[in-house]
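Appendix C: a fully annotated inverse folding record. The material below is reproduced so that readers can follow the format used throughout the book. The structure is listed first as tokens, followed by the designed sequence.
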């Protein structure tokens, strides 16, 4: 090889390694956005469902709103082959996973898959224990972009070790893959997982309820409000590249429009993953308007990457604040009560500082913010300096008023 060619090849290799590292590094700059089979379909999945959802992601405008991952949750698995490589269930996925990922990619979307740190998944399919490197290699060969790794059937498995092992395997396989750790908070992953995967579940599974805990003999399912309150204790651990995950969205699965709006708003405020869980091939205009609200999504994806916090409560309302990258603030008044609440809001009561994470302050005595209503998409005047005058808010039951305070 001539010296000139050698320099070219060396430069090419150097840049490829650089680009690859950069891709891994930026895979979770903002909370992940996409869709998953689980909340609506559970194990009743197949190739047609995924293809239909991929098509609908594009035609409904969801892809262009930022939802890119199509995640196949539990029950896609067939058996391992003679060498131990996992195969897809050939009845459910007759064209195989590589074909499916090619299809999904052709739509400008990404494909996600699901496994488990233990011997079996929660639905009894083959787990990755003892097959981590093989599974990671298989996913990379198939063109998978996202792995949700669950925590069933893990007796005597060390959580940190197990997730680290898969993380190493994914890197060795060579394809940037978003690593979503689904360990339900059992071993406090927020304390050790920030450099292992890209998000970690903080608690039990969500179910489609605004505020009722669902209790089974050996486990519970969280309502929207349960998820919010658990997640609020963990905001200091979240940030760019590593997010708290209070579980997937239930918008469009049976709650009221108000509840869906409140649920979606709070996931945006908390910089939570926005993984849709409804049948987007078939959704109401109300559901679509909620999940494609670009101003709300911008709050979720904001590059400062700070999770909102519950600053105070008054008259049953919760006041939540999220500092944004350009000096703006997102503010949400959440009404978890059963009644509509009228509230006289005085900005000066909210001169606050985020001492825990960003150190940013609102200063309503010095700064006048323009007030943007994130659900009506209308400007509602400005905040007032040293004013005694109040702004009267009407917050319906199980609903929100959400503002962007613009500098
Ligand atoms: C666990 C997870 C859920 C889902 C199911 C699949 O319960 O927490 O999100 O993946 O397993 O069996």
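Designed amino acids, in order:
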């Amino acid at each position: 090889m001539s010296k000139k060619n050698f320099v070219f090849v060396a430069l090419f290799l150097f840049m490829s390694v650089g680009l690859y590292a950069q891709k891994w590094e930026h895979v979770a700059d903002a909370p992940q956005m996409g869709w998953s089979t689980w909340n609506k379909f559970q194990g009743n999945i197949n190739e047609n469902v995924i293809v239909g959802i991929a098509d609908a992601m594009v035609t409904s405008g969801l892809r262009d709103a930022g939802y890119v991952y199509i995640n196949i949750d539990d029950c896609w698995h067939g058996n391992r082959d003679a060498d131990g490589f996992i195969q897809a269930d050939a009845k459910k996925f007759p064209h195989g996973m590589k074909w499916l990922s090619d299809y999904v990619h052709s739509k400008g979307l990404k494909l996600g898959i699901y496994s488990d740190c233990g011997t079996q998944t929660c639905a009894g399919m083959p787990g990755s224990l003892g097959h981590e490197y093989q599974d990671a290699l298989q996913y990379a060969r198939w063109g998978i972009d996202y792995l949700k790794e669950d925590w069933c059937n893990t007796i005597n498995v060390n959580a940190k070790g197990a997730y680290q092992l898969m993380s190493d395997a994914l890197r060795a396989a060579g394809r940037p893959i978003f690593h979503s750790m689904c360990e339900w908070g059992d071993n406090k992953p927020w304390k050790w997982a920030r450099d292992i995967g890209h998000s970690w579940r903080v608690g039990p599974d969500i179910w489609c309820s605004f505020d009722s805990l669902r209790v089974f003999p050996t486990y519970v399912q969280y309502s929207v409000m349960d998820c919010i309150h658990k997640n609020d204790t963990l905001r200091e651990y979240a940030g760019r590249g590593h997010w708290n995950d209070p579980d997937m969205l239930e918008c469009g699965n049976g709650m009221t429009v108000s509840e869906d709006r409140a649920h979606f708003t709070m996931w945006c405020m908390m910089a939570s993953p926005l993984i849709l869980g409804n049948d987007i091939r078939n959704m109401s205009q109300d559901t679509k308007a909620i999940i494609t609200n670009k101003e709300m999504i911008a709050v979720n994806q904001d590059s400062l990457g700070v999770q909102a916090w519950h600053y105070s409560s008054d008259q049953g309302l919760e006041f939540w604040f999220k500092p944004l990258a350009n000096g703006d603030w997102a503010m949400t008044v959440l009404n978890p009560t059963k009644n509509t609440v009228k509230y006289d809001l005085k900005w000066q009561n909210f001169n606050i500082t985020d001492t825990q994470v960003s150190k940013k302050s609102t200063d309503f005595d010095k700064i006048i913010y323009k007030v943007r209503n994130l659900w009506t998409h209308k400007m509602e005047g400005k905040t007032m300096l040293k004013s005694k005058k109040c702004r009267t808010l009407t917050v319906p039951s199980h609903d929100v008023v959400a503002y962007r305070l613009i500098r």
